[in-house]
Each structure stands twice: as C-alpha cells, then as structure tokens.
Design goal:
This protein has 170 residues and is of the alpha+beta class. It has 4 helices and 8 strands, in the order βααββββββαβα. Helix 1 runs antiparallel to helix 2. The radius of gyration is 19 Å and the shape is elongated. 14% of the residues are buried.
C-alpha cells in the first residue's frame, strides 16, 4: 500500500486557498448581493459580482487538485480524499485504459502530472506539485503509458483547468 507523502508547502497553500475562498464568499459575494438588494441593480454591481464569482471559481479549480492518495497494489485500486470528496472515493485501476505523463508549469516551476485515461478521456489527475513521493505513486500505477501525445495550447489549457480532454491515440 502506497500513501502519498504531501509536501509541507501543500498545507500552507490549502489553508490559504480555503481562507481566500471563505473570505471571498463572505466579503464579495454575500455583501454584494445584500448591497444589490438594498440599493438596486447597477452595471457596476453586477460586474463586481461576476468578477468575484470568477475569482471563487478559480480558487475551487485550484483546490480540486489537492488530494490525499492511497494506492492498494493488492486490490489494484486508488483511494483519494479531497476537499470535494472529504469521505474519499475509490477507483479501480482495472477500469482505466492508459495513463499520460506530462508536465505543467506554475509559479513554483515545472512539475510532472499523471492523468488516468478511461474510454478515451482523461478522468483523474495526480499532480507532482503536491507529493514528495510522486515517482513512487506513478510507478505503482501499472497502466500502459501514452508517450507520444501532442498537446496544443487549447488542449493544454482545457486539461489544466478542467482535467478532462479526449485522447486520440495515434
């Protein structure tokens, strides 16, 4: 059984993101809605509300990639816990067809990412940004690796923000 060893920096990032999510929700969304109800609707109020909702959505997109991963080699399964799945979810690795290993770039530099592919679509992301033992996690997932997949800018951005793209093997 392999358990993810999370970087110390991850806890700081998670705490900050949760703080910004809660603060942003209260300060910008709730207060803006109350102000709109009291004072009436104006273009600037709606613009501020849309901007704040976009900021909150961006934070949720970032937070969704924070996962605690446990790989059970005997059962050939992967269990993960995240903000969106606090009680965990178990995935059977036999249900996946392939994996794609690629790299992404952030403020902290370039890092490796593994995407699990099921029925031609990427459905699960394991980011090397958060784990000290990423190579061990990657090597314990015994799936065929797609080596020669070419990403264009549109696919890369779609993969980065949604985590789901259609994979067409050559």
């Amino acid at each position: 059984m392999i358990k993810s060893k999370i970087h110390r920096n991850w806890y700081l990032w998670l705490s900050l993101m949760l703080f910004f999510l809660a603060l942003g929700f209260y300060m910008f969304i709730v207060k803006t809605i109350v102000y709109i109800i009291k004072e009436g609707v104006s273009f600037s109020n709606i613009l501020v509300l849309i901007l704040c909702l976009s900021f909150e959505l961006f934070i949720i997109i970032v937070i969704k990639d924070f996962k605690y991963v446990i790989i059970d080699k005997q059962r050939n399964s992967l269990k993960y816990y995240s903000i969106l799945r606090p009680f965990g979810n178990t995935l059977k690795l036999d249900d996946f067809d392939n994996k794609i290993k690629t790299s992404e770039t952030s403020v902290r530099g370039e890092y490796e990412v593994v995407y699990l592919v099921k029925k031609g679509y990427t459905v699960f992301k394991i980011s090397g940004l958060f784990y000290d033992n990423f190579k061990e996690i990657d090597s314990s997932i015994k799936l065929k690796r797609i080596y020669s997949y070419k990403f264009n800018l549109k696919l890369y951005l779609q993969l980065l923000f949604t985590g789901k793209i259609k994979i067409e093997e050559e």
